[in-house]
Amino acid sequence: MTIRVGTYNLHGMRDDAAALTRVIAAARADVLCVQEARRSGRWRARRAALAASAGLAVATPGRVGGVAVLVGRRLRVLHAESHALRPFLGLERRGLAVAVVQAEGTRLAVGSLHLDLSAPARMHHAAEAVALMERVAGAYEAAIVLAGDVNEQAHQPAWRYLAGRLADCHAVAPDGDGLSFPAASPSARIDGVFAARDLRVVSCGGVDAPIADLTGASDHLPVVAELRVGH
């Protein structure tokens, strides 16, 4: 069985709502890790409606950090939790959302993360998130998949740390150039999916959607990894 795990920075859900819905539907994700999800003004209802429009449901609680994990009907949600990461004076509060899902006897602990523009905060939160993921994965005997907006590129410290602990899915099985920001003229790969090394990465790349929708929906492009699970 192949599971599609994606990551998408929603830019606060303040751009073209119809285009955003179409892009998420085009991603065909079984699990979608989102960042900059709505955090005010009927945020629960807005998140739920967006997820439902693409056949998904919001699995994780809370609004901390604007991160959430959306899950499709093919998967069973065993557990979900959200964490506020260590605060840094003067910086936005960051969070980690985690959902443990099961498909054909395989369990995945999937986390959504949005790292800061500050390099020291990024590095600390990357390590903190991995430690939290390892704790949850260990409790449920699940393989880790951590995805999100890293706010730096593959040669920089936090990305290198994540890629040292987990497999950078695009580096393993690239589909396209992987560039994700800015959406209108992508020049940087700052959004990624990282998976436990015992998971088979089939491919990792962008979403086949009209350019007008991709540029109208958000300032980031989504990234989706296909992972082979089970036998």
Question: What descriptors fit this protein?
Answer:
seven-stranded mixed sheet, 28% helix, 6 helices, single chain, Deoxyribonuclease I, Chain A
Integer-rounded radius of gyration = 16 Å
Structure classification: alpha+beta
Question: Which fold name fills CATH's third level, the topology?
Answer: Deoxyribonuclease I, Chain A
Strand order of the largest sheet: 3-4-2-1-13-12-10
Q: Note the total helix count.
A: 6
Please bin the fraction of helical residues. 25-40%
How many domains? The number is 1
Explained architecture:
There is one protein chain. This protein has 231 residues and is of the alpha+beta class. It has a single domain, classed as Endonuclease/exonuclease/phosphatase (Deoxyribonuclease I, Chain A), CATH 3.60.10. It has helices at residues 17-27, 43-53, 119-140, 157-165, 169-172, 211-217; strands spanning 2-9, 31-35, 56-58, 68-72, 76-84, 95-103, 106-114, 143-149, 167-168, 174-175, 191-195, 200-205, 223-228. The strands form two sheets. Strands 3-4-2-1-13-12-10 form a seven-stranded mixed beta sheet. The chain has a six-stranded mixed beta sheet with strand order 5-6-7-8-11-9. Strand 7, helix 3 and strand 8 form a beta-alpha-beta unit. Helix 1 (17-27) crosses helix 6 (211-217) and helix 3 runs parallel beside helix 4 (157-165). The mean pLDDT is 96.
